[in-house]
Write the structure tokens for this entry.
Amino acid sequence: MAGMTAPELAADAATQPRPRPTSLTDLFVSFTLLALQGFGGVLAVVQRELVEKKGWLTKEEFIEEWAVAQIMPGPNVINLSITLGARYFGWRGAVVAIAGMLACPLLVVLALALLYAQFANSVQVAGALRGMGAVAAGLITATGLKLMVALQKNVLGLPLCIAVGVLAFVAIAWLKLPLLWVLGGLGGLGWALAYRRMKQ
């Protein structure tokens, strides 16, 4: 690579094969490990594993895929696993990705549910759960700030993306509007603005 100019390096990087799961087993194990780490702050874990460690998605692709997963019915991370599994291995990949997301975590949750039934009235347990809630909120906030850089390449531009995000926060957190209204209203507005700019 020595002696290559910046455009040549960029062109060479573009021709390199993108990282991807090597097999259905790799897909299953990857989503299983991802799911087992996702206690409370799954967004942070998903972004770190799929974007930073494995490189299966760029930051921009992750934001787009997560946005689609967000507006579809069902848990966000399950929706994301379906789309990624289907992208690489078709319907078999979608099934394997879901299995990876659900199999081991289901056993863990059942075990924790049995334990919680025994200690639900404990003051220490209640305090620990409140503390974990604060950590989860911090993880989600940190991930959002980390991904904000990728919005600079968004067709709407960073200032408008931030404005829409702030409006969504205000509508849900302060005004307590139903999520469906916010998705329909602000999501539709964002779509219309993006479509208009892409047509110019």
User: Anything to note?
Assistant: Residues 6-13 have pLDDT under 50 and may be disordered. Residues 21-116+139-151 form one domain. The helical segments are 6-15, 24-37, 42-53, 59-71, 76-119, 123-147, 158-174, 179-199. The two ends are 38 Å apart (CA to CA).
